[in-house]
């Protein structure tokens, strides 16, 4: 660009610096135009690592490229310093806090969490990432306050913590939320969890009764926690760039969790949301559904632990068992069906759809079933 401009000047036989041709302010603009793109670029303005500057990691790069990131495993490093600073701020850390960080990567967020918290316990499945985040903490002189557990977050036993922060592969979002909120008979005693989730998944999590996206996931989470949208995060803020944008949400365990058996609730919500847009009458009149409830209601001590994702219909082996039950106990099944339909009618639920019901209404229906001897686990 600079060479072409200079050649043009010689061709036209004029000197752009001469006052006869340009006043001073135009001469300065001409010089700016002649500067090449390379000259104008900042030394550290690497397009593949554009968020390097202002990193909290003591001037170190967010990713030193010493190993290859695997998109198939959901390895996308958040590198935008403004977003990282915001996450650390909205986490609401106290000087006495222990933070559970799931998926620390190379430590871009870890470095910021260690600035405010007493201790960070990170869970990372990739040994290369473990080495990277430990080395970074050592360079910053805070390695004595960082513990890294090498392992699968879904299989690792979490220590006690105050705040959870997670930037994780989207594929484990649902089971991770289940582990945080439903791994015990009552939600854990942590204050909150700040999670970076796939945008579409977060919208489903934030849905309320009546929304087209309202689902079993949202109903289950809202039973034991409040959900808050904090901010949307562009896919361009990650390296390598994923295909979708993200959303940051906060889950805060409720102190007023209803008195309900959580295993029973999870099995009940699974039944209700097996087809969320059908009426409850249509759902509970299905022969195989009736047979399943009859078998559970006639048994004691059977616990079916159900996690958050909407699951497929009963497997084929279970369907065969239900067929046998229908053939052998036709009259009993018919009687039980009338009983279930009667419960729905008595509460005014027969014509209602699960996607339109609040948790209070669903809890009332579950109570009616239990009072009449119908069990879901």
UniProtKB/TrEMBL annotation:
<feature type="binding site">
    <location>
        <position position="152"/>
    </location>
    <ligand>
        <name>S-adenosyl-L-methionine</name>
    </ligand>
</feature>
<dbReference type="InterPro" id="IPR020598">
    <property type="entry name" value="rRNA_Ade_methylase_Trfase_N"/>
</dbReference>
<feature type="binding site">
    <location>
        <position position="167"/>
    </location>
    <ligand>
        <name>S-adenosyl-L-methionine</name>
    </ligand>
</feature>
<keyword id="KW-0808">Transferase</keyword>
<keyword id="KW-0694">RNA-binding</keyword>
<keyword id="KW-0698">rRNA processing</keyword>
<dbReference type="InterPro" id="IPR029063">
    <property type="entry name" value="SAM-dependent_MTases_sf"/>
</dbReference>
<dbReference type="InterPro" id="IPR011530">
    <property type="entry name" value="rRNA_adenine_dimethylase"/>
</dbReference>
<feature type="binding site">
    <location>
        <position position="76"/>
    </location>
    <ligand>
        <name>S-adenosyl-L-methionine</name>
    </ligand>
</feature>
<feature type="binding site">
    <location>
        <position position="124"/>
    </location>
    <ligand>
        <name>S-adenosyl-L-methionine</name>
    </ligand>
</feature>
<dbReference type="Pfam" id="PF00398">
    <property type="entry name" value="RrnaAD"/>
</dbReference>
<dbReference type="GO" id="GO:0005739">
    <property type="term" value="C:mitochondrion"/>
</dbReference>
<feature type="binding site">
    <location>
        <position position="78"/>
    </location>
    <ligand>
        <name>S-adenosyl-L-methionine</name>
    </ligand>
</feature>
<keyword id="KW-0949">S-adenosyl-L-methionine</keyword>
<feature type="compositionally biased region" description="Basic and acidic residues">
    <location>
        <begin position="41"/>
        <end position="55"/>
    </location>
</feature>
<dbReference type="GO" id="GO:0000179">
    <property type="term" value="F:rRNA (adenine-N6,N6-)-dimethyltransferase activity"/>
</dbReference>
<dbReference type="GO" id="GO:0003723">
    <property type="term" value="F:RNA binding"/>
</dbReference>
<keyword id="KW-0489">Methyltransferase</keyword>
<protein>
    <recommendedName>
        <fullName>rRNA adenine N(6)-methyltransferase</fullName>
        <ecNumber>2.1.1.-</ecNumber>
    </recommendedName>
</protein>
<feature type="region of interest" description="Disordered">
    <location>
        <begin position="37"/>
        <end position="68"/>
    </location>
</feature>
<feature type="binding site">
    <location>
        <position position="103"/>
    </location>
    <ligand>
        <name>S-adenosyl-L-methionine</name>
    </ligand>
</feature>
<feature type="domain" description="Ribosomal RNA adenine methylase transferase N-terminal">
    <location>
        <begin position="83"/>
        <end position="255"/>
    </location>
</feature>
<comment type="similarity">
    <text>Belongs to the class I-like SAM-binding methyltransferase superfamily. rRNA adenine N(6)-methyltransferase family.</text>
</comment>
<dbReference type="InterPro" id="IPR020596">
    <property type="entry name" value="rRNA_Ade_Mease_Trfase_CS"/>
</dbReference>
<dbReference type="InterPro" id="IPR001737">
    <property type="entry name" value="KsgA/Erm"/>
</dbReference>
């Amino acid at each position: 660009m600079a060479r072409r401009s200079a050649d043009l000047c010689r061709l036209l036989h004029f000197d752009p610096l001469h006052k006869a041709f340009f006043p001073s302010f135009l001469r300065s603009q001409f010089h700016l135009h002649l500067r090449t793109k390379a000259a104008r670029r900042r030394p550290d303005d690497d397009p593949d690592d554009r968020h390097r500057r202002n990193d909290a990691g003591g001037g170190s790069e967010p990713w030193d490229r010493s190993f290859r990131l695997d998109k198939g495993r959901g390895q996308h490093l958040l590198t935008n310093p403004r977003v990282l600073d915001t996450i650390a701020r909205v986490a609401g850390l106290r000087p006495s806090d222990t933070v559970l960080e799931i998926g620390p990567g190379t430590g871009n967020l870890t470095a910021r969490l260690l600035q405010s918290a007493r201790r960070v316990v990170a869970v990372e499945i990739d040994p290369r990432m473990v080495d990277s985040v430990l080395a970074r903490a050592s360079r910053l002189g805070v390695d004595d306050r960082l513990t890294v557990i090498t392992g699968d977050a879904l299989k690792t036993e979490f220590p006690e913590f105050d705040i959870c922060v997670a930037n994780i592969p989207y594929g484990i979002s649902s089971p991770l939320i289940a582990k945080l909120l439903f791994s015990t008979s009552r939600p854990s005693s942590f204050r909150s969890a700040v999670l970076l989730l796939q945008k579409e998944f977060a919208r489903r999590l934030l849905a309320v009764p009546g929304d087209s996206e309202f689902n079993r996931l949202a109903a289950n989470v809202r039973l034991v926690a409040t959900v808050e949208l904090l901010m949307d995060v562009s896919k361009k803020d990650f390296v390598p760039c994923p295909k979708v944008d993200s959303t940051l949400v906060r889950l805060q365990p409720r102190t007023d969790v209803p008195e309900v058996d959580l295993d029973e609730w999870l099995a009940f919500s699974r039944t209700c949301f097996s087809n969320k847009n059908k009426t409850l009458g249509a759902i509970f009149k299905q022969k195989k559904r009736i047979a399943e409830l009859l078998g559970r209601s006639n048994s004691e001590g059977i616990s079916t632990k159900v996690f958050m994702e909407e699951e497929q219909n009963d497997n084929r082996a279970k369907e065969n068992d239900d067929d046998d039950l229908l053939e052998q106990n036709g009259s009993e099944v018919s009687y039980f069906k009338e009983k279930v339909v009667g419960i729905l009618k008595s509460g005014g639920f027969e014509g209602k759809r699960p996607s339109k019901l609040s948790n209070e209404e669903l809890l009332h229906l579950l109570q009616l079933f239990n009072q009449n001897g119908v069990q879901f686990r």
